[in-house]
Every structure is written in C-alpha cells, then in structure tokens.
C-alpha cells in the first residue's frame, strides 16, 4: 500500500479507528486542519491526519478535554516551550484525575456502607439505601 497517496475520509477513519463523523467534528472544532478537496469535491487526507487522530484518541483516553487536546496539539510543534508546557498540562490533568478518584472512593465507601446495612428485604420505608437517598442532609 502506498502511504503517500491521498486518503479518503473513510480510509482515514478506518486507519485511525474513529467514525467518519468524528473526523468531521474535529475539523469543525479546529482540532484537524481543513482537508484539501479533490476535483470531485471529496476530502483528501494525508498520513499526518491519521497520526493526529490517533494522538487525539490517546489523549482523550487519558482524560484530556478537547480544549486541552487543542493546546497539546499546538504545543507539540512549539520547539521553545512545548515540552515544558505539555508536562505542565499533563500534571494538571493528573491532579484533576486524582481529585476525581478521591471523590469516587468517597462515593464507593458510602455505597459500600449502605449496601452492607441493607438486609435486602422488608418494607421500603425501612431500607437504609432508600432512606439515605431521600434524606436531603446526606447529599
């Protein structure tokens, strides 16, 4: 397969592992450059688009927002401050994930306690889970 020949949107989607609509969305959002158009009007892509889509997909999997990914893409070509700024963004993302993990652990601990205290039978008004969900002070 000649990788230097122009690719269709379908070929790019398949190679990057994303739906075609995702490519169009990322183009509208400015995460991908507007592609060249063939004489037929079809979009024409290069290998760099496949690489960018894979970058975006991996960054999303690590929890980066599209706005953060836009910054990372811009910083990836900044030879002066790019790596330092990318590390700073990654550290901020890591800190946010750690906060979220702590929140989820707190929620898990509360749910474990409620599940353990519920006998699983009896009248609904005596169910500790339902009582906790109805109690405004537990929110």
TrEMBL record:
SMART domains referenced in this protein's UniProt entry, alphabetically: HTH_MERR (SM00422)
Domain of life: Bacteria
UniProt keyword list: DNA-binding
Domain annotation HTH merR-type: ranges: 6-75
InterPro entries linked to this entry: DNA-bd_dom_put_sf (IPR009061), MerR-type_HTH_dom (IPR000551), MerR_fam (IPR047057)
Pfam families listed in its UniProt record: MerR_1
Family annotation (Gene3D superfamilies): 1.10.1660.10
Protein name: Heavy metal-responsive transcriptional regulator
Provenance organism: Dyella lutea
């Amino acid at each position: 397969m000649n990788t230097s020949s122009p690719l269709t949107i379908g070929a790019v989607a398949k190679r990057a592992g994303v739906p075609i609509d995702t490519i169009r969305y990322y183009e509208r959002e400015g995460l991908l450059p507007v592609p060249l158009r063939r004489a037929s009007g079809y979009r024409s892509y290069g290998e760099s688009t496949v690489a960018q889509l894979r970058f975006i997909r991996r960054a999303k999997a690590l929890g980066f927002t599209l706005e953060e990914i836009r910054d990372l893409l811009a910083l990836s070509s900044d030879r002066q401050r790019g790596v330092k700024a990318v590390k700073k963004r990654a550290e901020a993302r890591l800190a946010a994930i750690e906060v979220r993990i702590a929140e989820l652990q707190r929620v898990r601990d509360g749910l474990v306690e409620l599940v353990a205290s519920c006998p699983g039978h009896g009248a609904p008004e005596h169910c500790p889970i339902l009582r906790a969900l109805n109690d405004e002070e537990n929110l």
